[in-house]
Structures are given as C-alpha cells and as structure tokens.
Automatic annotation (TrEMBL), chains A, B, C, D:
It is a multi-pass membrane protein. Keywords: Ion channel, Ion transport, Membrane, Potassium, Potassium channel, Potassium transport, Transmembrane, Transmembrane helix, Transport, Voltage-gated channel. Gene3D superfamilies: 1.10.287.70, Voltage-gated potassium channels. Chain C (1.20.120.350). Residues 27-241 form the Ion transport domain. It is found in: Membrane. Its main location: membrane. The chain crosses the membrane at residues 31-49, 61-82, 102-122, 154-175, 213-235. PANTHER family: POTASSIUM VOLTAGE-GATED CHANNEL PROTEIN SHAB, VOLTAGE-GATED POTASSIUM CHANNEL. This is Ion transporter. It comes from Flagellimonas halotolerans.
Amino acid sequence: MEEYKPQSKWKNKLHEIIYEADTPSGKLFDIVLFILIIFSVVLVMLESVDEFDQHYHKTLLTLEWVVTIFFTLEYIARLISIKKPWKYVFSFYGIIDFLSTIPLYLSYILAGSQVLLAVRAFRLLRIFRILKLVKFMGEASQLQSALKASRAKIVVFIYVVLILSVIMGTLMYLIEGDEAGFTSIPRSIYWTIVTLTTVGYGDIAPQTNLGQLLATVIMILGYGIIAVPTGIVTAEFTRNKKGNEASNKGTVHLNTQACPSCSAEGHRDDATHCYNCGHLL
Amino acid sequence: MEEYKPQSKWKNKLHEIIYEADTPSGKLFDIVLFILIIFSVVLVMLESVDEFDQHYHKTLLTLEWVVTIFFTLEYIARLISIKKPWKYVFSFYGIIDFLSTIPLYLSYILAGSQVLLAVRAFRLLRIFRILKLVKFMGEASQLQSALKASRAKIVVFIYVVLILSVIMGTLMYLIEGDEAGFTSIPRSIYWTIVTLTTVGYGDIAPQTNLGQLLATVIMILGYGIIAVPTGIVTAEFTRNKKGNEASNKGTVHLNTQACPSCSAEGHRDDATHCYNCGHLL
Amino acid sequence: MEEYKPQSKWKNKLHEIIYEADTPSGKLFDIVLFILIIFSVVLVMLESVDEFDQHYHKTLLTLEWVVTIFFTLEYIARLISIKKPWKYVFSFYGIIDFLSTIPLYLSYILAGSQVLLAVRAFRLLRIFRILKLVKFMGEASQLQSALKASRAKIVVFIYVVLILSVIMGTLMYLIEGDEAGFTSIPRSIYWTIVTLTTVGYGDIAPQTNLGQLLATVIMILGYGIIAVPTGIVTAEFTRNKKGNEASNKGTVHLNTQACPSCSAEGHRDDATHCYNCGHLL
Amino acid sequence: MEEYKPQSKWKNKLHEIIYEADTPSGKLFDIVLFILIIFSVVLVMLESVDEFDQHYHKTLLTLEWVVTIFFTLEYIARLISIKKPWKYVFSFYGIIDFLSTIPLYLSYILAGSQVLLAVRAFRLLRIFRILKLVKFMGEASQLQSALKASRAKIVVFIYVVLILSVIMGTLMYLIEGDEAGFTSIPRSIYWTIVTLTTVGYGDIAPQTNLGQLLATVIMILGYGIIAVPTGIVTAEFTRNKKGNEASNKGTVHLNTQACPSCSAEGHRDDATHCYNCGHLL
C-alpha cells in the first residue's frame, strides 16, 4: 500500500506493530501481550491466596516488577508512536492501560495505607485489554449486535423483574419476619432475587407454611420468566442469521489497522484514507 | 389542536399536565412523579432496616411526611381535573393511588395496633404506579402480546409441573421420612419445586441412596423441561417479529393523551374524539 | 345423532355422562369429578401434616370416607355402563381408578402393618385422572407432539449428560475424598448432577482448590448445555407453529366421545362408527 | 455382497461381528458389549460404597474378574481380526479399550501403592465405549453438527463469562473479605461462577449490604445472559432443520461397516470400496 509518511519511519513501524494486527510482527506483539496479560492476572490472583503469598512473596513481587516494567514500556511506546497522544491518553483503553500499570509504583507511595488493597486490585483491569484484542472477531461483533438490538426489551424485562422482587420481597418480610432471616425489606428483596433467578443459596429460607407457599410461587415464576430474555435474544439471533445470509454481499471485511492520526479502527481493506478524519492510512 | 372546552381553562391545563405526557409540562410532571415514587420506595425500605431506623428515625419520618403530602395533593388534583372523578376513584390505578397515600394518616389512628405493619407496607404499592408511567413503551407492549399469545400453553405447562411435583413430592415423603426434613407431603412438594426449578436451597436435602437417586431424576427433569416454556415464548417472539415487520404499515402511533371525560388512554395522534366515549379531545 | 342401541337406555345415558364430555350432563360430571379429585388430594396432603392430623383426625377420616364412597360408586358405574368391562379394568386409567379407590378399605385389613403408609399414598394416584380430563385440550396435545418429535434428540442429550456426570463424578471422588462429603462414586455423581443442572444444594461442596476448579468447569458446562434441550424444543415449536398454520385445513376436530364397545376416544365429529372396532357410536 | 477375501475366512467373520453392526451377529455382539459395559460401570461404582464393599467384597472381585477377562478376550479379538492392528492400538478407542482393561492386572503389581485408586478408576473409561456404540445414531450427529457450527460463538461467550467472573470476583473479595468466606481472589471467582451460573451452593454467601447488592447484580446478569448460548444454539438448530428438510435428497444412508483394512467407518450402503483407502469392502 502506497502511503504518505509524515512521521519518521521507525515511529510508523512501531505504530504498525502496536496498533495493528495485520502484519506478522503486529500479530506476534498481540500474542505476547495476550500471554503477559493472562500471566499478570494469574499473578494478582495468587498473591491474594495467603498460604501461597507467604511462601513465594519474593518471587511474586519480582515477577510483578517484570510485568509492570513491560507494561510501562508499552504505554510509553503507545504514546510515542501515535500522532495525537492525548486522544489515546483519555480514551477508554488509554485510561485502562494507565490505571493497570501504576499500582506497583503507587504501592511505595501509599505504603501501609488502607487504600493500597484496592489500588493493587487495579492491576486486574488489565483483563479489559483482552477484550480489545478480540474485539474484531466476527463472532463477538455478531453477538454484540444481537444483544444491542434486544437491549430495550431486556431493560423492560429487568425492570419488571425488579418491581416483582420489591413486591414479593415485602410480602415475604411481612409473612416470615426476623427468625427466618428476613430481617429487613432490602434483605427480603435480596432473598427474592436469589430465588427468582433460581440461584438459591439457602442462607435465608422460609420456615412458615405460608412463606413456603409464596416461595413456591416465586420459584415457578422465576423458572417460567427466564423464557422471556431467552425468547428475545433467540428471536434476534434467528433474524440476524437470516439477515446475514441475505445481505452478505453488502458487507466488506474490516481490518484491524488503526489510523495513525486519530486511532479510529475498523477500516475497509481497500481504504486509503481514514473514514473518521480523512488522514492517509 | 382545536378543542371544545367545557371545563374551566385551568382544570384543562391541570388535566393535560397530570394525565398526559405529550406536552413539556406533562413530561416534567411524569419525571418528577417517577423520582418521587422511587425515593419513597427507598424510604420505606430503609425504615425496615433496624440499625438505620434507630439512627435516622426522625429524618425518615419527616421525609415520609413530605412525600405523603405531595401524593395527597396529587390525588386531589387528579380528582379535580377529571370530569368523572368516580371512574378514576374506582379504577385500578385510582385504588392504588389511594391505598398508597393513606398509610401515614392511618398510622395515627391505628397507633400500637398489630395491623399497622401491614398497612405501612401499603406505601410500597406506589411501585405499581411506575408501571403506569411506562405502559406505553412499545417494547413492553410487544412483550405483553407475546406472553398473552403463549398464555394458554404456559398454563398447561405449569399445570403439568404442579402435578409432577405432587407425585414426586409424595414419593420423596415415603422414601425419606422425617429425619431428612421431609416432615409432611406439603413440605416434600415444596422441596420438589425447589429442586425442579433448579433453585436448590439445601435446607432440605435427601439423605438416603434411593432418595438421592429420585432427586437426580427430578433435577434432570427440571433441567430439561425448562426448555418447554422457553420454546413456547421463543416461537411466539419469532412469529411476532415477522408479523411486526410485515404489518408495520397497518399500525399507527398512539399517544399518551387521556380523554378528559372518561380517562381512556391510547388515542391516535390524529384523533379529535375519544374512541371510547366520543368526547372531544 | 341416530344410533343403534344394543344396551338398555339408562346404561347408554350413563355411558354418555361418564365417558363423554360433549353433553351438558357429561360436562357437569367432569367438573364435579375434577373438584372431588383436587379435594381428595388436598385431604391426603393435610393428613400427612402431623399438627393438622392430631387436631382434625376425625373430620379428615369422615371426609375421606365420603370421597372414597363417591369414587367407589363411580368405579362401579363405569363397569356397568361399558360393554367390555375387562378392557376398562386393565386399561391404564382403569388400574389408576382401582388403586386410588381401595386404600381406605385396605387400611382396615392391613391395620398396623408397615405397608399401610405406602398404600394410603396410592390415593394420590387420583391426580393422574386429572390428566385424563384435560388430555383433549388442544394446547396440551400441541405441547405433546412437539415433545414427541424432539424425544430422540432429548434422549441422546440426557445420555450425554449422564455419561458426563459419571466421568466428572469419578474425578471429583478421586480429587476431594471423604472429608468434603464425596464418600463414594454414586454420591459424587449425585453431586455432579446437582451441580450440572444448576440446582446446587450445598449439602456437599468441594473444599480443595483443584476440586473447586473442576466444579467451576462443571458449572459452566451445565450453564452452557442447558441451551441444547432448549434449542431442540424451540426449533420443534417454531416448525410446529408453521406447520400448524399451513395445514390447519387438513385437520378435523376430534370430540371426547368414547366408543361404548371398546372405549376408544377421539372420534371425528362426523363419525358414525368407531375407528377402532367399527361399533356404531 | 461379492467380496475379495485376502484374510482367512474366520478372521473376516470375526471382523464383521466385532467391527460392524449390520449383521444379526454383529448387532448381538454390540448389545452384549453394551450390557457388559453398563454392568462393569455399576460394579466400579458399588465398589466405592464402603458399606457395600465390606459386605460383598468377594462377589464384587469375582464379577470384576469375569468382566475383565471378557474385555481382555475382546481386545485380543480386535487385534487379530483387523489388518493393521497398530492403527487400532493407537486410535482413541484403542487406547480407551486398553486403559480400561488393565487396571485389575495392575492392581496386583501396584498392590498397596497410592496410585492404585486412580488406576482402578480407569475402568470407568469403559463408559466412553458406549459413545462409540451410539455414534452413528442420526440424532447424535445432528446435535454434534449444530454444536460445531455454534462453537466459535460459544467460545466467545464463555470467554466473556470468565472475564466477568474475574472482575466481579475481585470486587466481591475487596467488599466482603475473609469472614464471609471470600478468603482469596480465586475463591471469590469460584463463588462468582457459582452465582453467575445460578448454581448457588450457599457454602460462601455475602454478608454485607454492599456485597448482597453486588450479588444481586451478578445473579440478574447470570439469569439474563443464559439467554445468549441458548439463542446461539437455537438459531443453529432452526437453521439446521430447514437445511435438513431442503437437502434430504442429497444425503444417503451410511452403514456401520468398517473397512477390514483401515477401519474407516460410515460407508455408503452401495459402496464396494473403502472411501478412505480404496480397499474392497
């Protein structure tokens, strides 16, 4: 592809590797990133297991430093290789990248503080970056469009479920009272949702006959109305599929190239200019 | 819209604000109402949390008075602005409005009485009013029509589930007996429904081998027959969707205007007379 | 309907009332029967509740005698009014009718015996008779045909679920051992099915990390494969619906008349001979 | 069928009985095998029940020897009757057959060893052999193809569920802490999956108000997103069904004959040569 190169060559190369997944080196970079993200998420998890942390604290800390330094370098590389760095910094993924990189540095500043635990958990935000890596998978976008189309109906459904829970929960609160664990209306509503969604922990359970009768009604309701969101999404999938088959000719493949100027992604394979800012690709 | 005005102008204006949602002031009124309803429901919930009520009893009571006075005024305004007040008073939403407004007044009459708790819970009926506010959302009415169409099948389904529960529950009662918590047939049926709907509290659980074997059968049954209501509703949704797409031309938009004489709602945008009583809109 | 009458007139009349639901008296009989069945089922249930039985033992026994005598008379009437009584006696519903009528008589013969409890539960078999009363409801038969059509697929599905349960259950038995409640392979399989069907009692729950990891896999499996029976039944319903709409002209209404000779039911409205034995209707 | 017979006649006959299910003796062999597999699986299970094993240890061991000897002979017969035994030995089912036959022999070599328990469980691998016996059932292959077609979407779905679980689990870990059982992030994630899949053991349950609120969100999420795999598989089934009906003419019946040379199965009824190696059938 003939391209106009306003940036230095190595910056362009870096941009291609980091932001795009169409070249071999770009793909490799994405795979390495993917593995490192998973690895770092596992690290954070293991750290929270007391027995494990006591034995391997030093190893975990060292590995965490390795990961953090890699992500720091990657963050800097992203800033350098893009034309409008501020746009990246304040984009959703830019913020995620930043927040998930700083915890280790902050842990020295905030040492001994209470907020530290929460700050350290920020590292888990890295998991969102995986979503970015897979967002161009055709399957995911099909799922997304079906869910988007049925969004309004699902909101109405959740709305009805919540109103039902408030009413049923209050009734159970009046019927059962404190002994069975229904100590307040919010707790009764919590129990109602536990029952309606068929989770059923059993930490709170009705003891009276009337309470068990009402519980039975709630269970059958919950068992039945699960059919509603299922019906909505299925109807959307069925329609979608037909639509897809009928109109496949109308669609083109979008690649993972990102505009070097505005970072917009999802250009047509035959595009020479960014659809968003008109910059040459 | 040119209208014949038999009522005084301000009554008409009030009617427009309270009963309709097409004018800016009508919309604003609905939004304020919505927020107040949610606020008052949260109030009632917090009141039931003992620790919270002990600390903020006075604040909660004051806020409850504010809300109650607003709803009282709104109820009076509804009575004044409508032509046939009795029709409103004895309509479903009229009764809801009344019952959910009086508890605070009654609490002074019934002070110390046992019924008080139940009466206070009446305030939660306000939540039904939200349903009224959203009832013209197109999505909700689509859901409703799909559910209505599959109602007969769902009744048959629940019927079969209940018969199955009675038979299985009795069997479990005979097999397990008192030690495992199966103290009577109704309680065994309660357990069967808990299992069949895959809720599974675990407050009652089979202990014998035969009981666990039968429980396994019930679980797999419950796991399998959930497919039935789902299938019914989905088939209805799929059909509905096709119907909608085919016949969209045959439908018109209904607005939220209510007839000033008979309160009938859902007039065509181009209607000049009430479809129900013929009164000029 | 012009009919050849080989039986005495009153026997024919009786047959019409008991076996058919097309005449007013036949309908009335069915409704009375329906109420009595429900009533007698509730009686049996209440009897099993100890507190209730202690207070009202005499009343319950008297009412049970009333119900039993009615069902005895009905059984005799069925025998008299039909031409080939043996066919009825050994039919499915004939056996149900017999078994659900004798328990009270047997309770005097078996007094004090252990089997008594089980025998008394036989009265609950009456609930099957309700199924007979509703079996010609169009909705029920639609449900039935959809289920029949997907029977083979559902059997394969249950088969796979069982094999999966055996394998996963054995693995959990090896991993968890006795402390966590996985005391034998059958009990582990029981737990696996409890988990796979998303019932989750919690009476047995994995304690080790490896066990919890495997449990997670089983849960996600169970959560996912519920889609399979749902998909099967839904596809059948969708197809069925289309078929129904297309071929409604090809169907005729079947009435509830039973052949006086062979008891076959479901004759065409315009039938003059039994489709099964050729006897005049 | 006229056939070229390079092997001795009895070997050919043996091959027909063991590997094919189209002749009466072949069918009989499969049925006997099926019963023996089920029988041996039940044996292994009973052995793990302590009370049972103590009483009938000798009987169980004898029966296990009978079963093992049968499977040993069968394994040898399979080796003899096939032309390229190594292909069978290293095929999936060849390995299954071997591993599920040796445990009893190994138990004398490994006597007293710790691995023994796991080795004995290998006998349960026999259950996989049942899958082989039913693999040509048309229904199973339809299920399989529908699942295969929706595989990619289901992977994306499980992926999203896992990411959601990690995020929600970490949040719950930060909110609830040790007292409620959320002792580490992996355990919190375990709880999240228990909740999201609506299993709900109740061994770990949130105690704080904030925790219960978040749990409510997770439950409703889980209750809602079950619709997604269901929708995917259903859409696939619906499409599949249509495809099947349209193209039934394009399909031929495949029989269970296996090539005597390469063991490839699923030949056309009118085939005279193996589709895989060209050997005469």
